[in-house]
């Protein structure tokens, strides 16, 4: 038996690598696409629903559903990592889908905006459990060599589904109205996701344990102080504040989703105010996550070859430029160009941040580190909704976009200054070796 395999009972061997685990990996990609679809059902329709059916006129109040979603998802991300270490990955995944089942029905039948907010609390909990767990499971399966590619495939599936569903619901809403037909897709996604996760997905915790037994330290000693198991508190401190790469990734993730919260909540209202039809708003709402999703098929693999740091820093700066263009533009064509640039910048950042967390965190506490990172990252939805709403109410939508653009540029500079390159190939020379010839 090779060093990279171990018996797993029932005649199965545990092996690391994308090729060895292709069937399970592919199934998890499909499951995460369904997770993304649950989020995509809201991207075009819900901001317009708040204005047209519930009479929500204040931006801060209109963005309350994103605030509720972000807080719920961020908190659940943290517990998802801890629970997946304690109880296993699959039970957490299935639990997430069970929480998702009532969401589309609540959106269809909601008699008040309060129901919409409660539905988004449930959606946030579900997304935190399901998306976090599919991330951890894919990292478990592929091992260290193809981590960037794995995250690119995972996030591409999720956000391509967000885009496709946003586009589809826009066209459905234009033809049939804002309710109930656009949310029928969510009912189908929840049923499929629960069924596949329950019947098809297998537990991957043993893959992480196998990787931990053969974990190779960096030759430059960069992570020597992080070896072995850490307490939950130590993982939180290292990931949030202390370890330079982990903390840089956490702040960049928060700001990235801060501008996504802005795009989700205010862009449809901005475009509608310019006289665009619901169908055209759906195209713009879909274009950004579509480029983001498909682009990750390339950027995740590139980060395995080129490294993580500069893809992240340059991607944040590209997002800032795209947001500035959105604030300046006033036509469908320019907004489409800006949305594509915003998606490209996000594609450079999103899988690469997750891969960098996997690079640094030891397999024994990696699931918890992913949970802490995603706590900060998805907390950006809440921060973005609150900040964008307050600024938009006080100074207008364009001022809110400019504010978020400036924060995104600063975040990219933080990565450039504070973060080190995390992807260290075992066969690559260290900085000291290159310096000494």
Automatic annotation (TrEMBL):
The keyword Transmembrane helix applies. GO terms for molecular function: transmembrane transporter activity. The chain crosses the membrane at residues 21-39, 59-80, 92-110, 116-137, 149-171, 183-201, 261-279, 310-328, 334-354, 398-417. It comes from the Bacteria. The keyword Transmembrane helix applies. Residues 21-423 form the Major facilitator superfamily (MFS) profile domain. It is found in: Cell membrane. SUPFAM superfamilies: MFS general substrate transporter. It is a multi-pass membrane protein. Its main location: membrane. Keywords: Cell membrane, Membrane, Transmembrane, Transmembrane helix, Transport. One of its GO terms (cellular component) is plasma membrane. This is MFS transporter.
